[in-house]
Amino acid sequence: MNQIERRAVFSLAGIFGLRMFGLFMLLPVLAIHTAGMPGSTPLKVGIALGAYGLTQALLQIPFGLLSDRLGRKKLITTGLLIFILGSIVAAAASSIEWIIAGRAIQGAGAISSVILALTADLTREEQRTKAMAIIGMSIGVVFLLSITLAPPLAEGIGVQGLFILTGILAVLAIIVLHTVVPSPDSNFLHRDVVPVWSQISVIARNPQLLQLDFGIFVLHLVLTALFVVIPGQLVTAFDIALAEHWKIYLPIIVLSVAGMVPLIMISSRKGRAISAFRFAIAILSVGLAALALSVVRTEGGLPVLLVSLWLFFVGFNALEAMLPSLVSRVAPAAAKGTAIGIYNSCQFAGVFAGGMMAGFITEHFGTDIVFWLCGLLCLCWLLLAVISGGFQLFSSRVLYIGEQSLLQTEALVDRIRQVRGVKEVTIVRGESLAYLKVDDKELDTAALHQLKQT
Asked: In the chain, what are the domain boundaries?
């Protein structure tokens, strides 16, 4: 990457991270805080935790589409201002209903796809994968920091203080956006990054992508459900004060990253991606079953709880890394952005469903059932992954072809198809780009590069 690209990518990763830090930071502390508020019930606690997921799921694709017309920076600024408003509402809340409203408003600033689109505007095609990977890694780092820092911060400044802090971080993000992030010459339609409205109905019916969308829905449903019940279990069943919860989360998450590395390495080998994917789901399911047993056996059950959480986060972190890659490799090259947009919407829908489900189950049946139900959902996911067979996995490439007549385009498509390793070619008239699906192991890169130069 050149200097402008590095400046753009790292500053946009910072903006993405600041916003996600504000959302993640409430996960390990909000359930305990809201449980004592006026009008609080377990169901409302769960909704408060996951409310941002509903508005995020509904609005992130529209935000991305609007940014093509209104401009990326305008939409990102608008989304961050909405997020700040939600932080203020939640910080001033005197009842759980206002906490729910604040969290929902926070999620309404759904700028994830707009940030990715701006990243694509400011990077060359050959650097785009690296740029997206940097943003993805920033989210992982932010998740680790937010989960471990939130409990002691909540003890020091209170949960209202955390909401104020999230608003301040969003203000910093706006400053970075307008002082550090370069402005693109123009906005382009990046079909490999952002959704295209006309493709949504077709991609939403793709059976392989639907399986992956179901997976990310379940994964984040389970994560949110656990944070509805786990903090309270640590306090009541194991007598661990909220301010000390970081001592549980930090080593578990750090060690889980070490545990996921072998799975990621195996998944990168040719022909092993699906096996590693299924094994990660199995680890996730075993972790949840062990969590259910550790809650039942509270006497001497803390070691079992810790090992169970470690297994869960090994599976979670591995799947969090594998799923976006699988979506990118399964999706049609010219519709990858649309596939990723639907996938992200399913992820945030899972956040809301997990909070609401865990709250409802806890209120009517008890926390034990939450763990067993989460485990059952993961077993259903594993069964689906096994019986549905594998995926057709290819990499995506974007080839600049310049202005072409209809006859030239048809001839170029034939020439590209003859290149060894090219599996699919899509050229959208008026965009001067060819979208390819290729087998990296077979691809004749020299021949493809020669076509790019002609």
From this structure: 1-192, 195-392, 395-453
